[in-house]
């Protein structure tokens, strides 16, 4: 809907669309620029008061309005508003969306356009290192909840003329800003077009959980696919490294998590810590991390299978100190009880203050473990193997990926506990089928570069290359998923 050239009609329309006079954070001001009436609208807390005061002082300065009447709004804006980010707009929808996002509005009588003055500022926390992606060396900054700050962190590292940020709006009520970042010369045009069209076509009221809501809207998954299909990060150095390799970043306002497209399962085994160590040390810990994935998935189910259904192998390998009194049902109960207790300790420590979480987890683990053995709810061997499993899970860099592996492990434990070896084999087949059917955005293979096979790319994922060799001369070919 266009604006009227009569300021009274425009003011009445604003009052009909916005709770002016009711909501305390909406600021209005009736101005007189010489003989011309004007009207100001802004959101308190989103505006830099010092700059606004200077603009108002200049606009009402007798030297600025000595002509009395404003004849040309374009010339007036260019010559009188001494601020860089000012623009004209003639659409009410665009004006309302901008005003509620932070820019202020100035209406001048006699013109069917408004002047948007971008003097916004947002409440924001300080830039600090993410808790879940800490490194012993390297940068200590991380993404925050302000989209502009996050774009600045990317621009600071990638000062390329090809770096582009395109902004979209999602949510009929929230009107959340969503930014797509990419390099013009490296980006996959088909993937970029599909991603932009998908974001523009989303018909939702709000992104209530920020980037997580957008992730689930862009790529709906079935309940039997717990592994993540989109990689996320809160570290600018990690995001920029993927950006330079041809990936696309999606930055959501009010969320410190950046989405990375496209995604493969091997990306969740990477850690920025590898690149802050020497190539040999980084390769060693990367291989350890790869080894921790099958350990986290299979250690407890295999232990339950061997000790409960193959006692001769358990005695031969010394898996249990007293295997004669252990029945499969009893071991099954022990394993389930310990799994529940360790998950309880992990999440209670994660949700408590950092000053208390370490002490709570250590003391709680010692007390509960000792009491559980005394009450015959667990055995020392089960506690040991469960602790190794927990350490292996924590060694996997991707938290969401580790949680998906945990669900697979619980499925294998139930299948093994109820049906023995056939249950273990069937459960393992279901796990592999679930991983194989995990969807990805754009139809790319979830197992690239293993399938389609790319020897050089797979070598780069398995082994930490020195910096001179780690710079790809071209973007990796993932194959055309649409063929």
Report the count of strand segments: 10
Structural class label: alpha+beta
Helical content stands at 40-55%
Uncertain ranges: none
Helix-strand sequence:
HEEHHEHEEHEEHHEHEEHHHHHHHH
Rounded to the nearest angstrom, the radius of gyration is: 29 Å
Number of helices: 16
Compute the separation of the termini in Å: 44 Å
Strand order of the largest sheet: 1-2-4-5-3
| Shape call | elongated
Which helices and strands appear, and what pairs or packs with what?
Blueprint: H1 7-17, E1 26-33, E2 36-43, H2 49-59, H3 73-80, E3 86-89, H4 92-101, E4 104-108, E5 114-117, H5 147-157, E6 163-170, E7 176-183, H6 189-200, H7 211-218, E8 231-233, H8 236-244, E9 248-252, E10 258-261, H9 279-309, H10 311-317, H11 328-351, H12 354-374, H13 380-395, H14 399-436, H15 455-462, H16 467-470
Antiparallel strand pairs: 1-2, 2-4, 3-5, 4-5, 6-7, 7-9, 8-10, 9-10
Helix pairs in contact: 5-8, 9-10, 9-11, 9-13, 9-14, 11-12, 11-13, 11-14
Describe the protein.
With 483 residues, this protein is α+β, with helices and mostly antiparallel strands. The chain folds into 3 domains: 7-117, no CATH class; 131-263, no CATH class; 275-442, no CATH class. It has 16 helices and 10 strands. It has helices at 7-17, 49-59, 73-80, 92-101, 147-157, 189-200, 211-218, 236-244, 279-309, 311-317, 328-351, 354-374, 380-395, 399-436, 455-462, 467-470; strands at residues 26-33, 36-43, 86-89, 104-108, 114-117, 163-170, 176-183, 231-233, 248-252, 258-261. The chain has a 5-stranded antiparallel sheet with strand order 1-2-4-5-3, with helices on both faces. It has a 5-stranded antiparallel sheet with strand order 6-7-9-10-8, sandwiched between helices. The protein is elongated, with a radius of gyration of 29 Å. It starts with 6 loop residues before the first helix and ends in a 13-residue tail after the last helix.
